[in-house]
Design brief:
Layout: H1 11-18, E1 21-22, H2 40-53, E2 57-64, E3 71-81, E4 85-94, E5 97-106, E6 109-113, E7 121-123, H3 125-128, H4 143-147, E8 151-155, E9 159-161, E10 164-174, H5 175-178, E11 190-198, E12 204-211, E13 220-227
Antiparallel strand pairs: 1-9, 2-3, 2-13, 3-4, 4-5, 5-6, 6-7, 8-10, 9-10, 10-11, 11-12, 12-13
Length: 240
């Protein structure tokens, strides 16, 4: 999604949010996927390659510390298929009114089924307050590009989530690039990223981004969970 509000928490707080229980003695993190041990930049590059090679992946987006006023993206979920297709739903809130919008994105065109309507219409994502979700899996503009475009890359501690062990890598992203997949109020700002990578496969399983996504003077956080790599999926434009 190209312009989506998100905020990054301090590293310690992000780690606490991701971890259901802290890992201890979970191994050296060099699992069956051949994840490069001790080289966080190489880990991010390998995760980007795996995402670019995937035939499909499921995305789940959740926002935190969102403004009370204006139109904000609360969350969303759906399946993405390369090179730039997505089918799912986006949850927004306009003031106190929530709404769920079904969306289909194919090759740069976005269709939405707006509340109280029975069909899909072609729309401009920015006018609805979010970016094109088809870009999430686009290798030139999406999540894989963010994985390899950060600075100040450092390795974090391992965490265990729902029984799975994740390596954590932190980086700092330029807001302009994040704005290509999420809406961001200040493209010149930096966005803090915490990447959770499967310790065995090397796949990206969670991304937590914190920055000034909305124009309220504060920072917001968006967490993106990735699952179900390479499950059969086909996406086509909705019938008019």
């Amino acid at each position: 999604m190209r312009h989506v509000a998100r905020r990054c928490l301090p590293a310690a707080l992000v780690a606490a949010t991701l971890a259901l229980t802290a890992c201890s003695d979970d191994g050296d993190g060099d699992g069956d996927g051949g994840t490069p041990e001790g080289d966080p930049q190489a880990q991010l590059e390998a995760a980007a390659d795996l995402l670019n090679e995937a035939s499909s992946v499921t995305f789940v987006l959740e926002g935190e510390d969102l403004p009370d006023d204006g139109t904000v993206v609360v969350g969303g979920e759906g399946v993405a298929v390369p090179p730039s297709s997505f089918e799912g739903e986006i949850r927004i809130r306009a003031g106190a009114l929530p709404a769920t919008i079904k969306v289909v994105s194919v090759d740069g065109k976005l269709w939405a089924q707006l509340p109280l309507t029975s069909g899909f219409d072609e729309v401009d994502a920015e006018e609805l307050g979010f970016g094109d979700p088809g870009l999430l899996i686009d290798p030139d503009h999406g999540v894989s590009r963010l994985l390899t475009s950060g600075t100040d890359i450092t390795a974090g501690e391992q965490v265990r989530v729902d029984g799975d062990v994740y390596d954590q890598v932190e980086s700092v992203l330029p807001g302009e690039l994040v704005g290509e997949v999420l809406t961001i109020a200040d493209p010149s700002a930096e966005v803090q990223a915490v990447w959770a990578l499967d310790a065995e496969t090397g796949q990206l399983r969670q991304a937590t981004l914190t920055g000034p996504f909305y124009d309220d003077g504060d920072e917001q956080t968006y967490t993106v969970r990735l699952d179900k790599y390479d499950e059969p999926a086909e996406i086509s434009a909705p019938e008019s």
